Every structure is written in C-alpha cells, then in structure tokens.
C-alpha cells in the first residue's frame, strides 16, 4: 500500500475536522450571543434610532469563550500526568525489565525492537492482566513521555509478527502527535459541556424565583446555555469520533511504514473480528481511553465509534479482502487450535551473539554484528542489535544509577592521554564512586559493536528517566564536557550528547514537546543544504565522494536548482544544531522530503556507515520523525 499517500490524506482529513470543531465553538458563541441580545439587549420601538448592543455582545462572547477556554485548560491540565498515569488509571501493572515470564519477555523484546528500529526511546511497558480481549494503547505527549499498555489477550492470542504490528500501530500514535490532539479535543469537549452545567446553575440561582425582577430573562439565558451546551457536546462528540477514526487509519498506515509488511497488523485485526472476546475491555473507565485503543474498547453507536469498521481496516491493508476470506481465516484458526501443540522455540535473550548456541540470524545480518549496517529490514537489524547486546550492559541499563555510568562510559575516549582528564571530569561531577563504576563499565562498552551505541541509549532511557531532574542535567553537562575534553567533537560523540539532551529534556517537560510545523521546504533551504552536507561528508572519506552524495540529496530536495557545493566547516556542530532546530519547524510532508534527500546521500555509495546511521538517528529524533534507513 502507498502509506505516504495515506498519511497525507488522513492528516488533511484531520485538519478539516479540527477546523470544523473550531467552527462549532464559534456557532455556540453566536447562538448564546443571539439569546443574550434577545433577552437583555436594547430593542428600540419603531421610528426610534437604533441602539448599539456591541458592548453587550462583546461581553457575552468574551465570557463564553473564557468559560470554554478555562474549563478546557483545567481538563487538559488534569490529563497531563503522562502515559504512566494513564496506564495506571486503567489498572495496568508495569512489566519489569528483568521479567522471566516468556510472554512478557517476548513483549519487551518486540517493544524494544520497535523503539530501536524507529529511533525512539523505549517506553514504559504495562500489562492489563485481567483483560482477555485483544487491545493496546499508547499514551504520552511525545516519544520521550510514552507508555505502551497491552492486554493479556494480546499475549495469549497474537503471533510475534501480529504483536509487532499492534505495537508499531501504538508507537505511531505518539509519533504522529495523536495523544496531544486527543487530549486537547477532550478538554474542548469538557469546556462545551461546562456550559450546560453553568446553565443549570443560572436557572437554579438566578431565575428560580418568579417574583424576582428580570428572572424571565435570566431563565431564558440559563435554558439557552443548557440547550447549546448539550447540543454542542453531542456534535463535538461526533467530530471527536471522526477525528479518532481518521487517526486510526493513519496509525495503521504508519505501522506498515515501520514494519514494511501488512501481515502482522492485518492478522491482529482478523483475530479481533474472529475471536469472541474481540477487542472489548472490562474496565469501568474504558471510555476515557477509547480514542487511544488499537480496537474498539466497547459497544458504541456507529456515530460515536472511535475506529473504522474492522473489515474496512483490513481491506485498507489487503485490498479485496471479503467476509468469506474472514470465514476461511476463522476455520484455519480452529484447525490450528485443534491440532496438537508444538514445543515453542527457545526465546532469544539479550547478550547473545553470532555463533552462540540458541541464536540463529539471517546471513545478511552478520554485517550488523561486525559493526556495519546490513541491507536488511529495520526490524531485523534492530533484532540483531538487541540480540548482540552484551548481557552485562543489558542488565546495567535497567537501573538508573548503573544506566548513568554506562552513558558516561560511552563518552570515554580510547586515547590513553585523554583518560586522566576525563576521569577528573566524571569525579568532579559525580564523585569518585561513580568514576570507579564508569571505569568498570569501560571495557564492556569498548567491546560493543559500534552500531549498537545509540540503540543502547534507547534501552537505557526508561531507567535514566527515573533519575532526579538535577542528576539528569548534570549527566547531560558532563557528557558535553567529556566529548570536548580533547578540544574537538567527532560525530559519534556529538550524536550521543545530542540524543540524550533531546530525550531527557522532553521527558522533563512532555507538554512542551514540539508539534508538527507548517513551514515549507524552501523556507528552510539553507538548513537543508547544511544538514545534507554534513551527512554526505560523514559517509565519505574523500571530498569527491561527499560532493557526489550531496548532489543526489540536492536533486531529491530541490530538483532542477543549481546549488554550489561548500564543504562543511571544521566547527560544524553549532550551525548544525541551529539547522536541526530550524528543520523541526517544517510541515510533516516537508520533513519527509528532507529524510528522503538524506537517504539518497547515505545510499549514494551503496552502503551505510556507522557515522551515517548515527547521524540519521539523531536527525530523525530532532525532527520528531521515525528513523528510516
């Protein structure tokens, strides 16, 4: 399927629906203004000069808008606890990183693979253990504030590929900004509903006594608030459901983009349609997260359904799929269920490497383990990196303090002459105990395959996020001091420091994470040229090769334009940082063009170096886009 076209179509549809929501609020204000004018306005007799009601109507509009706005803000603030609080409100329990349950271990492996492949931090992982239906949701304002929660039904009924498709779908909700949009729509709905509550209060306190002067007018205004509030809420719910349905289509398309296959997510949808539990949730507050779920959490009227019909979602992934095909799939599932169970293959464990018994990797992935970037699908590369991770490091990054020492060890230079100065930097920032712990991790980090350095940061992120804010900031400053200890910053060092700085800052202030920009590509022309220049130079050992790769990128980004090649400056980091911040303000479609241009540069010589891969990971994180290699 053409998922890029699908993404563009759905984003446009969502924008139109949000505009419709705004127009509905304007209509509510106009309706209440009309009632206020009729009840309290000046109405001169025929022949008298017209009286101005402008101040009255302006005051009425300001009061209504302020009421909706303040009520919406209150509700949004109450929903700002982050993905963790949403998951816990549903009765979910955290999946520990050291779990030995095979099903939970498989879940963690899949989520870690999706995070590494998409270039985002590993989220908090939760399980709704008492829910037999197949469902899941992701909550959070950004990838750095995300929690992924699945039901027991997902673990019991889905294959690994199907679970991967569901998780990729949920990741896309966070990456596409759906959580931020949904929270704001929920707040706006609450603000509209408050009008009806205020109307009841107005009638009760202001118009309830018939002998009070002006009670008829007050009663009329109160009744208008009630009617307009409930009618507005009804239509607001319709629009919210339509927005949610369009974003679900986008999430399905994005899941295909991440996994590069439709069988997984389509298989999960088919099982929801076939199995008696479906995607139903038992939780009493399931309506609160209905718009976040993978499937419908309850039985809703079609007008208020937050997801497209199952058959429609399956057909979008597999055109031509029919009800008869679904019946055949159900019969096949029954046949498999009736056959004797087979002994499951042993689950892979982090720390395995090529040649270790129990681990079998496709031959194309041997390049990953040797330190390169193999020409394999992103999820296979992510699985290879994850499985090649030394067990000692995998265990270390699961706890906050030991994860901190691993991050500092990643920044240590192999040059013996720099190590005394770097040890002093660590000791000054954290003390001698941490310095000794960093040195103890140094040998394991030095033996790490280069392509696994930044994925290790993703795996460490859940633990690093638990550090106190002051310690996080000290970690970021210390990393920057370590990489500048020799007076220069190479690409690997820069990528490590930049990635952690972005992710930790967004985790501290999730609601301040950037949203989709609106700038077109020509508005950021100089920034695109500079970023492409740095990436092209990083992947080539000679200027001729770098210029050739850069020209491929320019043909993709600015076809037909004559642009002069200028090598990147020696001190490129500061201008590169400004360029990335500028590019983050681009529209999603413009960001896609930038990523495609970078990919042309990276693949110009037919191979992807570690430096190119790390730069792409950091660029995608800075632009809040999923990683693509």
UniProtKB/TrEMBL annotation:
One of its GO terms (molecular function) is metal ion binding. The chain crosses the membrane at residues 17-40, 52-74, 185-206, 218-239. Residues 337-350 have a biased composition (Low complexity). Pfam families: Peptidase_M48 (PF01435). Coiled coil: none annotated. Gene3D superfamilies: Metalloproteases ('zincins'), catalytic domain (3.30.2010.10). GO terms for biological process: proteolysis. Residues 105-318 form the Peptidase M48 domain. Its cofactor is Zn(2+). Residues 336-355 are annotated as: Disordered. SUPFAM superfamilies: TerB-like. The keyword Transmembrane helix applies. Keywords: Cell membrane, Hydrolase, Membrane, Metal-binding, Metalloprotease, Protease, Transmembrane, Transmembrane helix, Zinc. The keyword Cell membrane applies. This is Peptidase M48. It comes from Rhodanobacter lindaniclasticus.
């Amino acid at each position: 399927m053409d998922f890029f076209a699908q993404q563009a179509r759905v984003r446009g549809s969502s924008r139109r629906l949000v505009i419709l929501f705004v127009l509905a609020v304007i209509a509510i204000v106009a309706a209440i203004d009309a009632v206020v004018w009729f009840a309290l306005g000046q109405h001169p007799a025929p022949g008298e000069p017209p009286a101005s009601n402008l101040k009255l109507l302006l005051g009425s509009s300001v009061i209504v808008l302020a009421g909706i706005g303040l009520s919406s803000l209150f509700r949004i603030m109450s929903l700002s606890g982050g993905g963790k609080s949403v998951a816990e409100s549903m009765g979910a329990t955290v999946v520990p990183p050291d779990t030995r349950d095979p099903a939970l271990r498989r879940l963690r492996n899949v989520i870690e693979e999706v995070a590494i492949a998409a270039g985002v931090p590993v989220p908090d992982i939760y399980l709704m253990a008492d829910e037999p239906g197949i469902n899941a949701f992701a909550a959070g304002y950004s990838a750095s504030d995300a929690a992924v929660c699945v039901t027991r039904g997902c673990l019991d009924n889905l294959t690994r590929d199907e679970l991967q498709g569901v998780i990729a779908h949920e990741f896309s909700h966070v990456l596409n900004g759906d959580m931020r949009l949904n929270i704001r729509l929920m707040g706006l709905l609450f603000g509209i509903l408050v009008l009806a509550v205020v109307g009841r209060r107005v009638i009760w306190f202001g118009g309830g006594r018939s002998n009070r002067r002006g009670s008829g007018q007050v009663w009329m205004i109160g009744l208008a608030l009630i009617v307009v509030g409930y009618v507005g809420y009804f239509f607001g719910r319709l629009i919210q459901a339509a927005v949610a349905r369009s974003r679900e289509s986008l999430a399905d398309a994005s899941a295909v983009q991440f996994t590069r296959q439709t069988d997984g997510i389509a298989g999960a949808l088919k099982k929801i349609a076939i199995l008696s539990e479906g995607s139903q949730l038992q939780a009493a507050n399931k309506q609160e997260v209905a718009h976040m779920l993978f499937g419908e959490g309850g039985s809703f009227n079609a007008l208020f359904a937050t997801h497209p019909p199952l058959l429609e979602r399956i057909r979008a992934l597999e055109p031509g799929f029919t009800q008869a095909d679904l019946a055949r799939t159900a019969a096949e599932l029954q046949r498999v269920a009736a056959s004797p169970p087979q002994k499951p293959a042993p689950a892979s464990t982090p720390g395995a490497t090529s040649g270790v018994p129990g681990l079998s990797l496709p031959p194309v992935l041997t390049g990953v383990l040797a330190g390169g970037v193999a020409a394999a699908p992103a999820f296979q590369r992510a699985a290879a990196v994850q499985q090649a991770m030394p067990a000692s490091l995998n265990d270390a990054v699961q706890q906050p303090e030991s994860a901190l020492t691993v991050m500092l060890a990643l920044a240590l230079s192999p040059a013996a002459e720099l190590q005394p100065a770097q040890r002093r930097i660590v000791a000054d920032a954290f003390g001698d105990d941490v310095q000794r712990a960093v040195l103890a991790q140094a040998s394991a980090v030095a033996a790490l395959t280069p392509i696994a350095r930044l994925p290790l940061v993703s795996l460490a992120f859940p633990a690093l996020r638990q550090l106190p804010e002051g310690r996080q900031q000290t970690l970021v400053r210390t990393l920057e001091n370590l990489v500048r200890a020799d007076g220069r910053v190479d690409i690997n060092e820069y990528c490590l420091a930049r990635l952690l700085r972005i992710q930790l800052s967004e985790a501290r202030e999730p609601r301040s994470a950037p949203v989709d920009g609106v700038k077109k590509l020509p508005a950021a022309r100089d920034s695109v040229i500079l970023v492409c220049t740095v990436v092209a130079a990083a992947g080539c050992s000679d200027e001729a090769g770098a210029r050739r790769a850069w020209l491929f990128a320019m043909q993709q980004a600015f076809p037909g334009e004559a642009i002069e090649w200028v090598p990147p400056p020696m001190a490129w980091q500061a201008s590169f940082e400004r360029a990335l911040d500028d590019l983050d303000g681009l529209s999603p479609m413009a960001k896609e063009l930038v990523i495609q241009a970078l990919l042309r540069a990276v693949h110009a010589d037919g191979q992807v170096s570690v430096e190119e891969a790390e730069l792409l990971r950091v660029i995608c994180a800075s632009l809040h886009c999923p990683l693509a290699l």
